[in-house]
Amino acid sequence: MSEENATQDVTKPKSLLGIRHVQCMMLFLALVFAYAMRVNISMAIVAMTDKSKEDSFNWSIQKQSVILSSFFWGYVVLQIPGGELAARFGGMVLITSCIAINSAVSLLIPIGSYYGGWQLVCACRVIQGLSQGFLFPSVHNLIGKWVPLEEKSCLGTVIYAGGQLGTALQLMASGFIAEYWGWPAIFYVNGTLGAIWTALYVFLGADSPHTSKMISVEERLYIQTSLGHVGEQKKLRTPWKKIWTSLPFISLIVVHCGQNWGFWTLMTEMPSYMSQVLGVEIKANGMMSALPYLAMYLFSFPLGFMSDYILKKKWLSITACRKLSNSIGHFGPAIALVVLSYVPAGNVAVAVAVLTFVVGLNAGHYTGYLLVHIDMAPNFAGTMMGITNCIANIVSIITPLAAGAILQDETDPNEWRKVFYVASAIYVACNIFFIVFGTSEKQEWNDPVDDSKEPSDEPVAGKKTEKII
């Protein structure tokens, strides 16, 4: 079939699996390995500083805290430049560099810790954070080019859920690896798996269907027609002023900050809460630590399929569907946090069940505001994600400091209620702002008008509009 004839038939390809699914699977694995390398130090440092071992390091709690936080020093820096680079050069080069650099550094950390001490470990983590600054902007860019509108909720969920699965698997596996092979093996396993992924993606990956050498004409046209990308794509100048003055985009910044405040309150403060109030140290049990992440991973699939089904049946507009998903992901945990604050001291089973439910429901944000970046402006989704992720991760650094300022007595449940109330209120307030001002309608600045051309008064054929709900 010639490409000219194929343009007449833009129906979904007959084959169940295509090259777009290969790309999505590689992006899913990229997030699995990236998040595994992001959190591996939290488990490894316990074994590295175990005084019962001969080769342990005598690092103080303060030095360990610096090591644990050093990743985010670098992570925040390249978020916005990463989005711009993804828009200019495509996401493939950036995500390949991200995983390759993280893998190489993981392989060097054991040697570096012996010869350079905690300072060199910090330097390695900063480098990993810097390179992972490319992760979400490049993934967003690639999803915007590869995933058809009809499959965006489902495939987008599969991809983003890789981060939570990687975290859960790393938490579960690290203890066993350290016990049987020693703590350096944690980094060697991560580095080796990342290197294998990099080699595979160099051969299988592509910036877009247009540049892929493996995709069929039928599948290429299906994707490009769904996204309105038929023909060669031009390099567009980023409309910075219009992005920063767009109220729907500002609503994405607000809701992303709300997400990070609530999520990191749970992830950083739960161990202390369960230890001081409920009398159990959650980090002593890798399986218990991984449970909320596994719940988030598992909850993401029914929520993703639900979102796609609603859009397929046309029960709701894209905007309304995204807001519904995000409301499940934010209002649900907000209510559950209040319930958690009233769990009786010592009732560990109920507390863990509520905590797992809280984090599980939060999976709604995968098919909520995260996809709105791509809905609003697929041409600049990477740049937009870089901006919102940069600002939101500054909030991630502030969150535990704020909790520490609120808590005067860590053993007092009333003090913890204040922390949970604040997180709950922020979840609710930020999501309401998103509901009021957010939209999935494609913005006019997604397709900048060439200044050299006269503006036409004729309507653009096929352009659809959607009310903000």
TrEMBL record:
Q: Give an example GO biological process.
A: sodium ion transport
Protein name per its UniProtKB record: Putative inorganic phosphate cotransporter
- A GO term, aspect molecular function: symporter activity
Query: Taxonomically, what lineage is the organism?
Result: Eukaryota, Metazoa, Ecdysozoa, Arthropoda, Hexapoda
This protein's membrane topology, according to the annotation, is:
Multi-pass membrane protein
Q: Where are the transmembrane segments?
A: 24-49, 61-78, 90-111, 181-204, 243-264, 290-311, 323-343, 349-372, 384-407, 419-437
In which compartments does the protein localize?
A: Membrane
Family listed? Belongs to the major facilitator superfamily. Sodium/anion cotransporter family.
PANTHER family given in the database record? FI21844P1-RELATED, SOLUTE CARRIER FAMILY 17
